[in-house]
Every structure is written in structure tokens, then in C-alpha cells.
């Protein structure tokens, strides 16, 4: 059978989702060893974020020109913008690491990153299913994204409790609290993507 070509909006959303996955993979794989590595770390993740901005701009431009869209144009825009928020969050995290000259992931940051990578993987799967119009299969993956977000909520509370109980340096407390908050926000942005996908399912399945 001839495989039907994806419409241009599906291709655009896939580009954004793939960029999120690539960004999350780099986030977890780059080995920080010293302060000088932080610049490269932040610059590469900024490049992913900038690429994402260009993808979203293209989506907006094409939506303004399109007469017919595969799903409601507002849903396409919301999906694109919510995925872009994930990239913005990852970029913000990398910037904070550089600003605070933190060169190692503690156990909590490492676990946050693993959950964010899980979200990124599921987002790519869901957007691919959307492009193939397999709407009813999206739900199980949207649920997985929400489970990762729930894990991050629990992790955030554990991390703060440990931080306040053991760290005596007020500057370090402020720095790590900000980092944990940013990571938890990234998970929240992933959940928003899942919520937007569920809204699409309700309208179109």
C-alpha cells in the first residue's frame, strides 16, 4: 500500500516534537566536567530553543495563509506553543546552570531529567499518532506524560525537603530551589501538551 503523505501542519508539529526529544536527549547525555563546559551546554540548548522558535513562527505563518487545516487552527497553534514552552523551560534550566556555575547534576536533578526525557519521548509518539490520525491511541501516551509530571511533583517536594534540611549556605539554597522549580515547570509544560492533545481527541475522535 502507498503510504499517505502527512499534511504540512503534521510535519511542522513533528519537527517541533523531534526537536524537543533531541533537546532532552542532549540534556541528559552531555557530560559536564568543569565550568567551561557550561557555556557549551547552555549554547547548544539555546540553539535547540531558537530552532523551536523558528518552527513555531513557520506554523503561525502557514496558519494565517491556510484555508483548510486538518484540525482546528487554534488546536494546532496551542500544540505548537505548548511544545515550545517545553523547549523554553529546558533552555532556562541550562542558563541557570551556567549562571550559578553548577557543574554536576545531583540525584534530584538527574531524576528530573530522566522524567523529562520520558515526557519528550511520549510527546513525539503522540504527535506522530496525531499525524497518522490515530487519535484513539494517543490517550495512553498522554496519560504517561501526566504520570511523569506527577513523579516530578513528588520529586520536587522531596528535593526541597532535603535541600532545606541539609544545606546551610543560603545562596546555594536559593540557587538549587530555582533549579528545582524550573525543572518542575518543564514537567508542567509537558502536561499542558498532554492536556491539549486530549482536547484534540475529544473534538475529533
Automatic annotation (TrEMBL):
InterPro entries: PhoU-like_sf, Put_Phosphate_transp_reg, UPF0111_domain
A Pfam family that the UniProt record links to this protein: PhoU_div
Domain of life: Bacteria
Similarity annotation: Belongs to the UPF0111 family.
Protein's UniProt name: DUF47 domain-containing protein
